[in-house]
Amino acid sequence: MAGGTFIKHDKRRPGAYINVKAPNRKGGVTGSRGVVFFVGGNVLGWGQNGIITLSPDSDFKQLLGVDLDADLFGVTSEATADGAVVKIDEKKKGVLTALHETLKGALKVLYYNINTGKTAEFKDDKLPWDFKAFYPGETGNQITVGVSPNPAKAGTVIVTTYFGTEAVNKQTVKTASQLKGTEYTAVSVTDAAKADDGKALITGLTNGITSPLAGGTTDTTSEVDADALINTLETQQFAILTAAGYADDAPIHALLANTVKRLREEAGQKVQAVIPDTVGADYDYEGIIVVANGVVLSDGTQLSTTEAAGYIAGVESAVPLNQSLTYAVYPNASDVIGRLNNEDTILALNAGKLLFTVRNDGTVVIEQDINSFHNFTQDKRSDLAKNRVIRVLDDIAQNTKDTFEKAFIGKITNNGAGRDLFKSNRVEYLNGLVTSGALGAFDAADISVDPGEDLDTVVVNLAVTPADAMEKLYMTVTV
């Protein structure tokens, strides 16, 4: 649906166009919360091409081709005449490490996967089946199929599918058509075996046959296409967009930053991007969170800035509207990579950088839950640099847009009674935010719903005061 911001009342498409201002003063959660759109690109060599929906309890090995809780991401060993050579795919390592961190906080991840390579396969004339990996990519070469006579029942065979060294499926069959595909392999009966449903080959098998699938390749030339990505983003519901894990200076981060501005201002999609700090970049926008440093985990694992950005993406997506992440603890972190002194910490905060610091007790925390907006104006004051404030204002805008589209556009007459109905709906919603502590005091007089210049136009003016968490204590002790 149409939406976004407006300069004057001249929009062509039906929709909700909402401006948020925070002028200098004297003196419920939408369906996108908890969801991260994670741009992974072509690093997997496995999985569905497009969006893979993940949650913390997903079967990552089946969906991604890796075990996020056990694998050494991007590390492979290759046998040579001089012994085994260990290779590290830094891009794959970075992306999967960041994804692992994202899932520590996110409720759902929409993983954007590019997988257009060739599919691994296995054929043998002694068998009535052709086997293919379920997805294209070189990871399919890690699949092995074993077919052996069943010693417990003559005339049947046991077909076992392995992914790496793990048996992931086992079936006992007496005809070719009884064998079903798995989450790792697609199976088809060969033309030669169709006449008798493979019975001759099955009963004639005296020795087992075990072979890996081969020929799977990953198309590493297929990078993220900007237009295709943007088209996909506009059709999905999510709270945070990130390409965490990519190198700090990778062009994808600037692409996502520009895309978020477009989504927020032209499509009315109130999302934020989380990106690593890049030398020379100054985004200065409330929809973009810039992570400035990394952390060391208690097991010694060092997470770079871009990998730690994955954690921020996850927790920012799911934090309740009435909570801040200022001084929130990074779980199992023991130190910060790139510690800053007091002066440099202040400079980083003033430049709109979200950073990790170490409390006096050694705990690693988020210093302040801020976004990159730092050049304040009369219409956009410093409150908009706080992510808790932005979450509330974004929820008001998004919820109002969604409600107007679902329940009012084309359904309710634009007269006094209709506008009163819309106002009552908004008052009820806003009072709910007050009750939860997301908003300060609110009165029905703080919102007006009036007719616009055109017969089909409604003009809403709303004054709200988002609540924030305690962050600074000034105390005087007199003796």
UniProtKB/TrEMBL annotation:
It comes from the Bacteria. Residues 379-479 form the Tail sheath protein C-terminal domain. Residues 224-372 form the Tail sheath protein subtilisin-like domain. Gene3D superfamilies: 2.60.40.4290, 3.30.1370.220, 3.30.1490.360, 3.30.360.90, 3.40.50.11790. Residues 118-205 form the Phage tail sheath protein-like beta-sandwich domain. Pfam families: Phage_sheath_1, Phage_sheath_1C, Phage_sheath_domII. Belongs to the myoviridae tail sheath protein family. This is Phage tail protein. It comes from Schleiferilactobacillus harbinensis.
